[in-house]
Design goal:
Distance between the termini: 71 Å
Oligomer: single chain
Number of strands: 40
CATH superfamily of the largest domain: FAD/NAD(P)-binding domain
CATH class of the largest domain: Alpha Beta
Structural class: alpha+beta
Helix content: 10-25%
Radius of gyration: 28 Å
Largest sheet: 5 strands, parallel
Length: 708
């Protein structure tokens, strides 16, 4: 919609609402969407002395964080600062605990560092904290009200009319909805497409089939924690299931839960949105339990595909329990956070209709999703193919009486993993999340892996296949910066709007950015920028970035990731080169899992031997002399004890080995390979090779220190 037609539409809709206007509110900042990010934005603006209105289309504050997403997806806890950290601190204090996010995340443990319980909280406690923060800050909260019309003046929004007749004037607006509703209503460019790999030079975008989620005949047996030795969960496996009503007969038609559609070409652009679900909070306390009733239209035929999945699991030798249908994590007070599975709460296809749907249409879609999930539980309770252990496990669980009390214990929030995404001058891509490109102005950090749930469940090669599912890291790169340009629209479209969940990002980059902590972080930064824009009377695109950075840092936001090897000096003396300055042959993996003495990451060979991998440094010698040569690496018990290093100097060529199991630092200094003479202007080279190595070979950088 162009600016003229958008304005005409808004004026017409506005006129229709004026006659029923119940109240007129003049504010500085209007935040639309009472999600976790919405509360964070509103509180920040209010604390900066602005009059703030927070509009929530539903009845509850907190979005998914208080709507069932109790086992928080956070990535690197130390990258979370500002109001997000304050929220989690206040949250765990409700349980008499203290937040402890100062230690390195331990991926080998059971949930990482001592978090004070921040990964496992009850939804009603989360909502209580959000309510308290908004109330304490003096935020005006309007609940159960939805946008009906906007008032524009040029490229600025001057007011919003709600469906209850309330008219809110404001200088700045922030869209904190999961769907990007306000952004779309304002006519800002957005997309629900998967762009395809070619558009931004990515690898995970467009039509996508993850190799580890392609159907296979046999899997190993899960360990006690429900995971295979390779980390794959029992709840997230794909067997080659027959998709037809009559097995082997395509003419009989597709089973329910299988979508129509061609497999397509991997990497090509395609429509489609990640599957949605409800993140259920269930209890094993019989005194606090409500039975999970079957839906009124329950039909076991709808779940025939689930029955075939059970048959395949049993043929694989699985000793099935309820985890096969939902990964579930413990919460306080005998409650559990139920996630999804290959056949769990996700209902691929329903999400496609959600972003553009009206609010009444969304209520119908939410009820359809609820009935599907209730029906799945009924199938697991009653179908004769379901193992008794699954039925016994399920019988322990019910909806808690003290959660979602106005909705019978069922969550009021659908897990909107993805909706519209803004398209602005800066588009966050895999290049940013994988650490290959960096933004000019950071508003916070993201740190989670690349995580997109299935978009389609279709027939490929004659069997049921999940398309669009991504569950991978980001090449080992640590926390990355989210750019200011990704939360503001193009200038010609709007000068006083921020968008913090449905921000400007490619589909595959959004798969990492979409988590709740970064949402809260970007929302605080947006609110801060909004206040500065008001004070300086400028467009959001013209906010003074140095002034913004200073205020964000003063308020505890973390804008850069600085992680060093323990004991290393922040800056090494002499000639220093990062691994990013080396010349590599073969395929090296970038990582920061073990910390880095130079730069933000290091590289390792991933134990790949064919072809041989090399990393070569060519230092520039400014002064002739003798230099102590130190090749930096990261130590681990899986490292090679015989990594080959060749040094070419004025003394000639020398080859030696390096034991990378040993600590890389001695008294805070990198280990020496020896002293060598280098001539000014002559070629100098230090090359690391994994030829014949008996373990993983890593490289972090090179130091040449003038010998005393």
């Amino acid at each position: 919609m162009n600016s003229v037609s958008r304005l005409t539409f808004s004026i017409l809709a506005l006129s229709a609402c004026l006659s029923v206007r119940a109240e007129e509110i003049n504010a500085d900042v209007c935040v639309y969407g009472g999600t976790s990010g919405g509360v964070t934005a509103a509180v920040q603006a209010a604390r900066m002395g602005k009059k703030v209105v927070l509009i929530e289309p539903g009845r509850h504050l907190g979005g998914m964080t208080s709507g069932g997403l109790s086992a928080v997806d956070i990535g690197e806890p130390r990258s979370v600062g500002g109001l997000a950290r304050e929220y989690f601190t206040r949250l765990v204090a409700k349980y008499g605990k203290e937040l402890n996010w100062g230690e390195k995340f331990d991926h080998g443990g059971k949930g990482g560092p001592s978090t004070g319980g921040a990964y496992s909280i009850e939804p009603h406690v989360a909502e209580e904290v959000f309510d308290e923060m908004a109330q304490e800050a003096g935020v005006i909260v309007i609940r159960d009200a939805r946008h009906a019309a906007l008032e524009h003046t040029g490229n600025r929004i001057s007011g919003i009319v709600l469906d209850n007749g309330t008219f809110v004037h404001a200088a700045m607006f922030i869209d904190t909805t999961y769907e990007g509703d306000f952004m779309a209503f304002a006519g800002v460019s957005n997309t629900v497409m998967r762009e395809g790999n070619a558009k931004y030079g990515e690898t995970l975008n467009g039509i996508h089939y993850s190799p580890k989620f392609l159907p296979q005949e046999h899997f190993g047996q899960p360990r006690e924690n429900g995971r295979l030795p390779n980390g794959h969960g029992a709840w997230d496996r794909d067997f080659p299931l027959d998709p037809y009503l009559v097995k082997g007969d395509p003419a009989s038609g597709l089973l329910p839960l299988v979508m129509k559609g061609e497999p397509g070409i991997p990497g090509e652009p395609a429509p489609g949105i990640q599957a949605y679900c409800f993140r259920l909070c269930l209890t094993t306390d019989p005194e606090n339990s409500i039975p999970i009733a079957a839906p009124p239209d329950y039909d076991p035929k709808r779940y025939e595909l689930v029955g075939r999945f059970i048959e395949a699991c049993l043929a694989n030798g699985d000793d099935m329990d309820l985890r096969w249908f939902s990964k579930h994590d413990p919460l306080p007070n005998e409650k559990w956070d139920f996630n999804t599975a290959t056949f769990g709460g996700n209902l691929p296809g329903l999400s496609w209709h959600w972003p553009a749907a009206s609010y009444p249409e969304r209520e119908k879609l939410a009820k359809e999703l609820e009935n599907y999930h209730r029906g799945l539980f009924e199938f697991l309770r009653t179908d004769p193919r379901v193992p008794e252990k699954v039925k016994t496990d399920l019988a322990q669980f019910g909806l808690p009486k003290d959660e979602f009390t106005d909705n019978g214990g069922w969550p009021h929030q659908v897990y909107i993993r993805e909706g519209r995404r803004m398209v602005s001058d800066l588009v966050m891509t895999e290049h940013h999340t994988f650490g290959r490109e960096f933004v000019a102005h950071s508003v916070g950090l993201g740190s989670y892996g690349t995580d997109a749930h299935e978009i389609r469940r279709i027939v490929k090669d004659g069997v049921v296949t999940r398309e669009g599912k991504i569950a991978s890291g980001r090449g080992g790169f640590g926390p990355y910066q989210i750019g200011y340009g990704a939360i503001v629209p193009k200038r010609e479209e709007c000068e006083n709007l921020f968008v913090t969940f449905a921000l400007s990002a490619s589909h595959s980059a959004f798969a990492s950015i979409r988590m709740e902590p970064p949402f809260m972080i970007t929302s605080q930064s947006a609110a801060t920028a909004a206040c500065l824009a008001i004070d300086d009377e400028v467009a959001v695109q013209d906010v003074d970035q140095e002034k913004l950075k200073a205020r964000l840092l003063a308020d505890g936001q973390i804008l850069e990731w600085e992680h060093e090897t323990k004991g290393a000096k922040p800056k090494l003396a002499g000639i220093v080169m990062d691994d990013s300055e080396a010349t590599f042959t073969g395929e090296w993996t970038t990582s920061n899992a073990a910390g880095s003495a130079i730069g933000s990451s290091y590289r390792h060979d991933g134990h790949r031997r064919d072809p041989v991998q090399t990393a070569s440094f060519f230092p520039k010698i400014e002064t002739t002399g003798r230099y102590d040569v130190r090749l930096l690496y990261t130590a681990h018990s899986n490292r090679a004890t015989n990594a080959t290093i060749t040094i070419k100097s004025a003394d000639g060529e020398k080859t030696l080995t390096q034991n990378q199991e040993l600590p890389p630092l001695v008294d805070g200094e990198p280990r020496s390979l020896g002293v060598f003479r280098f001539q000014q202007g002559q070629g100098a080279e230090v090359t690391l090779s994994n030829r014949g190595a008996n373990g993983i070979v890593s490289v972090d950088g090179l130091q040449l220190l003038k010998a005393k």
